[in-house]
Predict the structure of ATP-dependent dethiobiotin synthetase BioD.
Amino acid sequence: MSVLVVTGTGTEIGKTVSTAAAAAAALAHGRSVAVLKPAQTGVAEGEPGDAAEVGRLAGPVTLLELARYPEPLAPATAARRAGRPPVRPHEVAEAAEKLATEHDLVLVEGAGGLLVRFDETGATLADAARLLGAPVLVVAHAGLGTLNATTLTTEALRARGLECPGVVIGSWPAAADLAARCNVADLPESSGVPLLGAIPQGAPALPPAEFRAQAPGWLAPRLDGTWDPARLAA
């Protein structure tokens, strides 16, 4: 995969830390990495956004943010309210393709979920992924309710002819409840794609050097890691 799009089943579920872990694992394999954030919302000018957080945690990656809107809203709404141009899928695809000529891996981190609107036409991250012909990694919650949300997302991807290599749990709790433990087996069966990792709760608070050292252990070999879902089942 030279370009991997990262989406989620909603907001605040660990997309950024999952992107950082994937970047760190790729860097540990000696790959050059770029991270593209098409639309950053809810962050004022001059403040660090999601791309900067990936760079802080993962290390020496190329960072590119196409647009920034101050209110924490869907990109289309945030752009309209800010009186700024929206991000278009072809702009995302063009930026990612250019980065891919200079890097081994380009990670494109979306805002919110897969079908959050980019612009007034209803274009979404899925449209950018289609233009790129890129696979889409899904980040999901660990616990109750995640089976439905994750399955809806993977079904939407299949309906659009998009490849989904798998699901990563964006925040695995230190004391997992029954639902989370059962979801280790149920998520692949429900979503139709494999579980490719689980990021431990609190990972963003780790010192960056420790985060980078541990990240490959949170992700499956498909994502340059060494993780095995049997660890969670145990």
Q: What stands out?
A: The chain has a mean pLDDT of 95. Residues 171 and 201 are 5 Å apart (CA to CA).
